Amino acid sequence: MELPSQSNCHIVAIPYPGRGHINPMMNFCKIIVTKNPNIFITFIVTEEWYSLINSDKLPENIKYATIPNVIPSEFGRAKDFAGFVKATLTKLEGPVEKLIDGPMMKPNVIVYDTYLSWVVGLGNRRNIPVASFFTMSATMFSIGYHMDLLALNGHLRANLSGKMHEQVDYIPGIPSIRVLDLPTAFYGKGQELLEVTMEVFSTVSKAQYLLFTSVYELESFVIDVLKQIFPIPVYPIGPAIPYFTSQKNPSSTTPVDEPEYIKWLNAQPNGSVLYISQGSFLSVSRDELDEIVAGVHDSGVRFFWVARDETARFQKKGCSAGLVVPWCDQFKVLSHPSIGGFWSHCGWNSTKEAAFSGLPMLTFPIFWDQRTNSKQIAEDWKIGYRVKKHDQCSITREEISRLLKWFMDSGNEQMMEMRRRAKEIQKTCQCSTANGGSSEINIDAFIEDVSCHKYS
Question: Which end of the chain has the lower number of beta carbons within 10 A, N or C?
Answer without folding.
Answer: C
